[in-house]
Write a structure and sequence with these properties.
Layout: E1 10-15, H1 20-32, E2 38-42, H2 45-54, E3 61-64, H3 70-78, E4 80-85, H4 90-93, H5 95-104, E5 107-109
Length: 110
């Protein structure tokens, strides 16, 4: 299987980054993973930008994608090696994202 490291801009995309657990994860990545190529993702650019600034994660990208927008989720999954979701509940916000990851051969962690 060919490496996706060079062909995808993000090692990890953190979906649900503006929620409670998401913010904690953003802060952890910002402090402990300086070489990680990653992005914060969710449905509100304003909230994502605020979390990125508050956590000192200015080096991370921001991806806006609603859980019901298949095209946006496809772009998100296609650009990541791993999608880490902290959005919940899964029954409402998970199925389309998992389907996008399957379509693009992207690892998924919830």
């Amino acid at each position: 299987m060919p490496s996706t490291r060079r062909s995808r801009p993000h090692d990890v995309v953190l979906y649900g980054a503006s929620g409670f657990v998401g913010r904690q994860t953003v802060a952890y990545f910002a402090q402990h993973a300086p070489a990680l190529r990653w992005a914060l993702a969710g449905r509100s650019r304003d909230k994502l930008d605020a979390v990125r600034k508050a956590c000192g994660a200015e080096g991370a990208a921001v991806i806006v994608a609603d859980a019901n927008d298949s095209a946006a989720l496809d772009r998100l999954a296609a650009g990541a090696r791993v999608v880490l979701s902290t959005a919940g509940p899964f029954a409402l916000h998970g199925s389309e994202l998992v389907a996008a990851c399957v379509r693009h051969g992207t690892h998924y962690v919830d």
